[in-house]
Amino acid sequence: MLLSLPILIFTALGAIASPVTSPKTLHSKRIASPSWNAHRRLEPHHTLPLKIGLTQSNIDSLPSLLSSVSDPLSPTYGQHYTPSEIASIFAPSDESIGAVKSWLHSEGIHPSRIRLSDTKAFLSFEASVEEAERLLETEYHIFKHEDGSENVGCHEFSVPEHLVPHIDLITPTINVARMTTRQPEALKKRGIFTPASASSLMLLPKTNGELANADAVSPTSTATCDQFITPACLRALYQITRKPTETKRNTLGVVELTPQSFLQGDLDLFFRNFSPSTMGEKPILVSIDGGVPSLNATAGFNINGESDLDLQVTMSLTSPQPVQLYQTGDNIEGGSFNNYLDALDGTFCTFEGGDNPNFDGIYPDPAPGGFKGPESCGIVKPANVISVSYSGDESTFPASYQQRECAEFGKLGMMGVSVLYSSGDSGVGGRNGRCLTANGTESVNGTRFSPMFPLGCPFVTAVGATQVNPNATVHDPESACMQVIFSGGGFSNVFEIPSYQEKAVNNWFREFPPPFTSAQFNNTRKARAYPDISANGANYVIAVDGSFFLVFGTSASTPTFASILTLINDARLSIGKRPVGFINPVLYSDLFEGAFHDVTSGTNPGCGTPGFSAVKGWDPVTGLGTPNFDEMVARWLILP
């Protein structure tokens, strides 16, 4: 809730009235990271591009507004908001703008130096390091990463106490702006720092190597689905029978973060073997901030594997439905969640958090070979379903960054968009097997479970991974994935449990109390839990760099479920209804009881423990279970 401040009066010449003053108080503190260390003080004459993100109005109402169009019991279910309606609802207040401007003027920042963004979300100005340190009562340092790269930021910063409710974030501060060796020397001398790629968001699929006998894998038989998952196996597992008819009205988007990219030759090879009717099809490229498909047929699995996987799965399961490829970031900086969100919502470029130089690409990119065009803002209407096979450790992102991005996912839900994210491949641990120490930092020796971002956001659908057990058939129950990867699952340390999930999670705590303490995970019963649902994530036969590989990961289960949801939207559109939009309240509702294949075996180890166990009903390994297409589509067709 915003504090009440006196009305600020501006003269015709733009002068600002005497500011309300109050003592400064700590606004935010940097999260310690073993990967970054303060290297040296930043010289006082350098220039910093400061951006002050203003607190959004009515943000506390977001859950109820989203629920009004996504709760199956709501009388306005499915009556989604328009982008202009959403922008109007959440715009920062004139009170916030005036209060922050008044403070800056009192600190010697002349009004002519300050620019208000078109959506009123940010106040931007350039300041010397000396000015910024005085303004924020902090010290700026060059931080050095373990990989040798450098960035600039501070350990903490303060603002006047009365402005805390009006200021959401300030950059660069605790969200440090990275300086890379690829920058022109002129930029380094000016002290303007550009970011590196969002490598912290890369959740790559895993493989146990090239498949030598791919020609022996049948494109139609389901007899060997315990060893090789093909489109035919997925259709049999989840009763996928629909052929799309509403391809001109329906949309499915797949997000890829550069340098991850697909090869058309790999798509053709896969389709020729396992989906002949899809031969010749290409994704619809949406180039975001200079993103382009790869032309390197020898880049290797870690570059071409993710995108090849996502597109081969979605295109084969939904053909002839066109698939949009949101290729995000140039080959110099790469891209992030915020960069692709910019492209979907023009107001997000500034209004809902903008881009953070530590985690996001900043465009235009001045580096040699960088994207020189304008930042991609609002260049494409969001697809009805968006599949994202990337995530990062929650502990590495400041809570303010996560909350602001989460709000955008909620607004996409209000617009009728379903956003799906992979739940992670390290069980209850973080990326690369790291867990948390008692003070919340990451370490290979940590023992506290490390939840993933943005899986804790209550406005995304988190997808876990299952497997067909060895020697089992597609008609037998699956288990949690325990081959090569472990299905990510757990409880957020940032986000509270949403109302739609309370019944299922409380039942799990009551019926299947976990053998772990509060020292190991957030067991308050008040935290957002994930995943929400699962799909197969083991032994996918995928073409990469001209060969076939067996691929594992929630990177596979997420595009699979996205394809199923797209087919459900197709069925609704065919009878004159709208896309399903944000699906979580429906998934957890009584209406969908029995619409899933319950998964009751397997665990998700990590942090020196066996992890949680898959049990009857919802669990933090496989969520509500795997989809039963026939049951789900029948129930969704009943809804308005």
From TrEMBL:
Signal sequence, renumbered to the chain: 1-17
GO biological process, one term: proteolysis
Molecular function (Gene Ontology), one example: serine-type endopeptidase activity
UniProt EC number: 3.4.14.10
Textual note on the cofactor: Binds 1 Ca(2+) ion per subunit.
Pfam families in UniProt: Pro-kuma_activ (PF09286)
Name recorded for this polypeptide: tripeptidyl-peptidase II
